[in-house]
UniProtKB/TrEMBL annotation:
One of its GO terms (molecular function) is NAD binding. CDD domains: NUDIX_ASFGF2_Nudt6 (cd04670). Gene3D superfamilies: 3.40.630.30, Nucleoside Triphosphate Pyrophosphohydrolase. InterPro entries: NUDIX_hydrolase-like_dom_sf (IPR015797), Nudix_hydrolase6-like (IPR003293), NUDIX_hydrolase_CS (IPR020084), NUDIX_hydrolase_dom (IPR000086), Pre-Nudix (IPR040618). Keywords: Hydrolase, Metal-binding. This is Nudix hydrolase domain-containing protein.
Length: 357
């Protein structure tokens, strides 16, 4: 549906008609008229010192693409004035998503808060008539002053990044089917062992008091669009300077209510060292070294923790070829035509006695 843009400047010049009242009138008028396929508006507005006449083109087409022309004629102290406005639609620029919703174009959002309020209300009414469902509104940092307006209109926070905040609005009178924000963070730890049966270990500068003095394997978080097998190699390199080759995922842990009430996936990976010289990352790491496996296992904090002990058992079983982890296989699925990484257990060497334990 095509509607016209109101000359708020002209209207607000009337002392008896506040901007807030104009916005409420315009919004309620749009809500009541959007169901019709014609463009109609009141012919006259009159108040002390201001006679304004609005002229509109009418059309029965809801798909017409041409620009609309609005002419406003008004008088101030007996002087005639005319304003001309061009606007393609009185609806926010948006694209349809594959689930019956809309994605609002953040680059074409009105900068003026009053205009944004009015057009947002008109857009929601328009999308409701059209049978749309979820609305995604991405507000860049430079337009953060529009956030309270969207929230007041019923939008809810979905997630935020450094440069924007994403809000959503569910139109149908039924349970919301929009996907929730990301629920997990993904961490990795690298078990790196050399030909001398030594494990690459670190002591972190910032750690919980309960872990004071612990020599642990290098760990970290996967960054956006990063694979597990490349992320763990990167983390080991950043913390210790050691180049490695990914071998397999030996095990992974799943925990809940960790950081900001999110769940946590932590993948313990076996890596093969490609270099020997350690170069410590001074920002995160206090010290790093190659530690004999026996000495690493006998640490009191390792022996006193069931989780650590089990991981060590798995690691030793893997070295003894009594256990096989999950190796990397990259495949393309017809479901989305995208390259995915599948981790699974496979035995290529028939002479390898690799059994789960």
């Amino acid at each position: 549906m095509e509607l016209k843009f109101v000359d708020y400047k002209a209207i607000s010049m009337c002392k008896l008609v506040s901007m807030e009242k104009v916005m409420k009138f315009s919004s309620s008028y749009v809500d009541s008229k959007l169901m019709f396929g014609v463009n109609v508006a009141p012919k006259f507005c009159y108040c002390r010192g201001l006679l304004m006449k609005a002229s509109y083109d009418a059309t029965s087409s809801v798909t017409k693409k041409n620009f609309l022309v609005d002419t406003f004629s008004y008088q101030i102290n007996g002087t005639n004035h005319t304003s001309l406005y061009f606007r393609d639609k009185w609806v926010l620029d948006a694209s349809d998503d594959e689930y019956g919703g809309v994605l609002i174009n953040p680059e074409r959002l009105p900068s003026n808060p009053d205009e944004f309020t009015f057009v947002l209300r008109a857009s929601l009414s328009h999308w409701k008539v059209k049978g749309r469902k979820g609305v995604w509104l991405k507000l860049p940092l430079e337009k953060c002053d529009l956030v309270p307006i969207a929230v007041k209109e019923g939008f809810q926070y979905h997630h935020a990044e450094k440069g924007y905040v994403m809000l959503t609005y569910w139109i149908p009178d039924e349970p919301c089917m929009l996907p929730s924000n990301a629920s997990h963070q993904v961490g990795v730890g690298g078990f790196v062992i050399n030909d001398k049966n030594e494990v690459l270990v670190v002591q972190e500068k910032h750690s919980a008091p309960t872990l004071s003095g612990l020599w642990k394997i290098p760990t970290g978080f996967i960054v956006e669009s990063e694979e597990i097998f490349t992320g763990v190699v990167r983390e080991v390199k950043e913390e210790t300077g050691i180049d490695t080759e990914f071998v397999e995922v030996m095990a992974f842990r799943h925990a809940h209510n960790v950081a900001f009430e999110k769940s946590d996936l932590f993948f313990v990976c076996l890596l093969r060292p490609l270099s020997k010289q350690i170069m410590v990352d001074d920002l995160e790491i206090q010290a790093a070294k190659w530690m004999p496996l026996v000495e690493f296992v006998e640490q009191p904090l390792i022996q006193g923790d069931d989780m650590f002990k089990k991981i060590i058992d798995i690691f030793i079983a893997r070295l003894g070829k009594r256990y096989c982890g999950l190796s990397v296989h990259q495949l393309v699925s017809k479901f989305d035509d995208k390259l995915s990484t599948l981790y699974f257990n496979t035995v290529d060497d028939p002479d390898l006695n690799c059994q789960t334990s």
